[in-house]
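wait is this the right file?? whatever heres the structure
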């Protein structure tokens, strides 16, 4: 269906009041909306079917719709959704925006423009989202989805083994610079040469806290970076923040502080610190104190303040396929995901009494004898995949009383990238983006772990960047960013 015609149909439908929840209908008469969610945990088919049945009894009565739950393995999710949105197979779906998927889906006509739906939605839904969150789900002034309600950005800290820190008299909270961290790393290395002094945060990734290094994903691209406080675009390898970070890593690696086989590591750094096989890992943190999440660890002070890169806000969103045969009912489900705690809790946690329980304090936890390893409906262990954990019962393990107030207070402290809201269309540059990503992947972890010194290999990297036309593309992106900033 042509977009112009579809927009007219939507406007007429909303004028007719179709956004009001439908009267109760039987399940047999209700329209079924398919909802696709990526799996971050294990789900058995039986458990999903049980939860779907309970959800549909509720949804038929309250909204006159049914939901077909489709859980897709996270590694295949992007490819599967991209294909499904070329048909009417999927109605409401999650999608990620880290590498420009929002722009790609919009350019390909795969996501439904929900601007008019949102403007005619409930006040509760509209009040749910901040202006930055609306910007993050918009292209050219039109909305195409709703962002996951979640704390965005992070500060950079280090997690130290508590027993060793106490043994050496290290005041972890006093560590707020890389130089101060360096001092205690050498101290621990001398005292405990039998363990790793510093390990990557996860696998071969030295840190997920990119905002501590530089601002990335300018204009939702995969290749444009800038140092914090500037809007001068560079390759990641040429930013001052990245260069400084890699300088520390190269020195520490050469002196034996970083695990020699960091590039082949498969472990989580925090788990190694907890177990005592490593002294320290770098970590991006937010509302939860890491030393409370990981036993036998202590968290340092802020090495870098809370920051959110251009791609950090709205990096996971939920929207409606443009090929959905049921756009009205799909928006009903989309709205309920963010405003109906009963529906959201069943979807995220499963069935009360079977997959989770509420304790005497009203907090959610696993039933007796159940853990993340044996719970058949994995949502309780994987809340990050769902649209809005702020309207769910607070988990017993949470270190706050009010999720919404805590997250909002956190977000108020986060420095947002100066280029946030800028979009640069790379949909016609697939070959270039692929070539750049291959180049970045080739060198990134090697220099970030210190396994290869950036200064030794930078001339080679720059030569390869020139060969794929990187600097010409970057100049065009810079001109577009400058024009955008001039109009703000």
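ok assuming it is, sequence goes like this
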């Amino acid at each position: 269906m042509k977009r112009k015609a579809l927009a007219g149909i939507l406007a007429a439908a909303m004028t007719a009041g179709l956004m009001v929840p439908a009267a109760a209908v039987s399940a047999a008469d209700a329209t079924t909306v398919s909802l696709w969610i990526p799996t971050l945990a294990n789900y058995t088919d039986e458990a999903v079917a049980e939860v779907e049945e309970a959800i549909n009894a509720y949804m038929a009565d309250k909204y006159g719709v049914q939901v077909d739950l489709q859980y897709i393995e996270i590694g295949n999710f992007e490819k599967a959704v991209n294909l499904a949105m070329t048909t009417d197979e999927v109605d409401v779906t999650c999608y990620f925006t880290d590498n420009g998927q929002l722009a790609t889906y919009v350019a390909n006509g795969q996501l439904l423009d929900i601007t008019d739906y949102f403007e005619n939605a409930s006040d509760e839904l509209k009040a749910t989202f901040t202006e930055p969150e609306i910007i993050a789900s918009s292209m050219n002034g039109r909305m195409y989805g709703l962002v996951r309600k979640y704390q965005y950005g992070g500060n950079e800290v280090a997690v130290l083994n508590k027993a060793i820190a106490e043994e050496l008299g290290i005041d972890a909270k006093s560590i707020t610079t890389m130089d101060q961290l360096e001092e205690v790393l050498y101290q621990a290395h001398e005292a405990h040469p039998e363990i790793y002094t510093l390990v990557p945060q996860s696998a071969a990734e030295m840190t997920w806290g990119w905002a501590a290094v530089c601002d990335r994903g300018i204009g939702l691209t995969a290749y444009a970076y800038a140092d914090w406080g500037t809007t001068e675009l560079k390759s990641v390898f040429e930013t001052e923040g990245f260069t400084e970070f890699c300088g520390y890593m190269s020195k520490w690696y050469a002196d034996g502080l970083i695990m020699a086989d960091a590039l082949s590591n498969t472990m989580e750094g925090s788990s190694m610190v907890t177990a005592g096989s490593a002294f320290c890992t770098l970590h991006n943190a937010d509302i939860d104190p890491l030393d409370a999440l990981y036993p036998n660890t202590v968290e340092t002070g802020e090495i870098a303040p809370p920051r959110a890169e251009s791609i950090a806000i709205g990096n996971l969103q939920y929207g409606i396929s443009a090929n959905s045969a049921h756009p009205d009912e799909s928006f009903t489900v989309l709205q309920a995901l963010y405003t109906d705690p009963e529906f959201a809790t069943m979807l995220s946690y499963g069935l009360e009494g079977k997959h989770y329980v509420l304790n005497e304090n009203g907090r959610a936890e696993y039933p007796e004898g159940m853990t993340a390893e044996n719970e058949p409906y994995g949502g309780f262990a994987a809340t990050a995949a769902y649209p809005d954990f702020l309207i769910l019962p607070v988990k017993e393990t949470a270190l706050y009383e009010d999720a919404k107030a805590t997250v909002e207070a956190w977000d108020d402290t986060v420095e947002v990238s100066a280029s946030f809201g800028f979009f640069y269309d790379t949909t016609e540059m697939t070959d270039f983006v692929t070539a750049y990503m291959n180049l970045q992947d080739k060198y990134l972890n090697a220099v970030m772990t210190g396994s290869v010194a950036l200064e030794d290999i930078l001339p080679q990297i720059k030569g390869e960047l020139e060969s794929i036309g990187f600097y010409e593309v970057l100049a065009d992106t810079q001109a577009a960013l400058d024009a955008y900033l001039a109009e703000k």
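The chain has two domains: 3-151+313-349, 153-310+426-488. so i think its the right one actually
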